[in-house]
Amino acid sequence: MPDLDQALVTIASWLDQQRIPYMVIGGFAVTIWGEPRFTRDLDITVSVPAEKLLATIALVRSEYTSLVADAAKFVNETRVLPIMAGSVPVYLIFAALPYEDAAIGRAKPIKLKTGTVRICSPEDLVLHKIVSERARDREDIEGIFRYRHAELDYEYLDPRVEELADALADRNMVDWYRALRKRWGKVSS
Asked: What digits encode the pLDDT tens for the residues 18-38?
């Protein structure tokens, strides 16, 4: 993963220089907090005020190659700007919810060989993935529990899982989460 690590340090440094708050999510964050797995791209959530969105898109495109022709339209439709950082595809995800901004604030600085980057906390990574029904996302959450169950902040995580389940009217999510907690010795109240 040397190319991936270097691309991440490079783009993280650039985001810091531009004062754009960010956190790394996706497969790279899973590798840090859970079961190591192969990934070829980077997923980075950034926080940009709505009034600066177009200027930020232009700024990113002045530094990195965009993978879409009409970046502003694509971001407006998807909240994602796919770019290349060297030979690595990067998906910049523009935060749209207050939760995402709070998660960026909770991101953890992690040292890599050539620099420090901000990785989504393991709790927020669980919350990002628990709303998905993809088997891969469930496996990622199980890996986070396998490796980090003793250090997870359950006072933060438990009520947010409940809130998500209520918002999505998905009690199966809570049942699955509680079973995971029970398996790893931390039963939620």
From this structure: 999 999 999 999 999 998 888
* Whether 10 and 100 share a structural domain: yes
Residue 167: C-alpha distances to residues 32, 110, 111 (Å): 29, 32, 36
Are both 100 and 163 inside the same structural domain? no
Model-level pTM? 0.90
Which residue segment(s) compose the domain that 178 sits in? 126-183
Is 188 part of any domain?
no
Q: Is 32 exposed, middle or buried (0-12, 13-18, 19+ CB in 10 A)?
A: buried
State the Cα torsion 54-57-61-62 to the nearest 10°: 60
Run of H or E including 7: helix 2-17
DSSP-assigned letter for residue 108: E
Query: pLDDT digits over 62-110, tens only?
Result: 999 999 999 999 999 999 999 999 899 999 999 988 889 999 999 999 9
